[in-house]
Specification:
This protein is 73% helix and 0% strand. It has 161 residues and is mainly alpha-helical.
Length: 161
Amino acid sequence: KTPSLDYDWSGVKYLFYALVVGLVLFVLYKILSNLKANPNIKKQDISIEAIEEIEEKIHEIDLDQLLKEAIEQENYHVALRINFLIVIKLLSEQNHIVWAKEKTNWEYYSEIKDILKKDGFKQVIIAFEPVWYGEHVLTKEGFEKLQPLFINYQNQLSPNE
């Protein structure tokens, strides 16, 4: 008798299915990893991680440049936080407060001895906290209403008094 050349091909379809599933998973992986690398998507993520890093190095970073960039990107929530950090930095540089990342805004407030600077800082806190901690969406119009308060207080603190 001649040997049979009939093979059982039923297992091949499972191999085909496995290859198709593997290919689909690979394509999904590539799509998701590209989303993470996409700078346009990361722009919105700048807020929390970037702000925490900025706070670590408040005295070394050019906060004015970061403020300008945040405004250009229309990220008014972050711009407001940077405005507040500029105030904290100025208060610290002029020895009105002792800066420490873990302190609350009201702890800083209690450290300020100059009554005019203390009152101005209270107004800044009251404007800042509901927006930052309340996680409200800050529009351009809302930012433009708050900005003069920060600028006036920063000018009050500036060394060119």
